[in-house]
From TrEMBL:
Top-rank lineage group of the source organism: Bacteria
Protein name: Uncharacterized protein
Keywords recorded for this protein, A-Z: Membrane, Transmembrane, Transmembrane helix
Source organism of the structure: Shiella aurantiaca
Residues spanning the membrane: 9-31, 61-83, 95-114, 120-138
Length: 143
């Protein structure tokens, strides 16, 4: 299943995985809609104990930044899949892979340093889903 067409399809999966966190954290910017973001943060910093909250304006602001970056990154990967992939499939694959690996290492290291090692473990699952077949180049084929 390592064809260019399957990679192109998987880039859309990757875009959804990345971008889906954007709206969740965007809604964390307002107290009245922050529960999904609070719960997600609580899940990512296991155990589910309710310690994570969105009471502070600085947390809500950081949630706005995080939501915007993640949604924008997801949209960018989607656009690469529809506008660029056919012209440069291997370069798109590598660019997205390097971006995901960069996120994984920085996010996981920061999670461990901040006392939330459970997020680093959850990141492994997100990494595997987001990357899927993009780990390896597509077999030689014509579009």
């Amino acid at each position: 299943m390592r064809t260019h067409n399957f990679h192109k399809f998987w880039l859309k999966i990757t875009a959804i995985v990345i971008g889906s966190f954007g709206p969740i954290f965007f809604f964390g910017t307002m107290v009245s809609t922050s529960e999904p973001a609070r719960w997600t943060l609580d899940l990512l910093s296991l155990p589910l104990d309710g310690v994570q909250n969105y009471n502070e304006p600085t947390t809500r602001f950081l949630s706005a930044l995080t939501g915007g970056f993640l949604f924008g990154w997801g949209v960018m990967v989607w656009c690469l899949s529809i506008w660029v992939h056919e012209k440069a499939p291997e370069q798109v694959r590598k660019a997205v892979l390097v971006g995901i690996l960069s996120w994984f290492f920085l996010d996981s290291t920061g999670s461990i340093a901040s006392g939330n090692p459970s997020n680093a473990l959850i990141n492994i699952l997100v990494l595997l889903i987001a990357v899927g077949p993009l780990w390896l180049p597509a077999k030689n084929e014509k579009y």
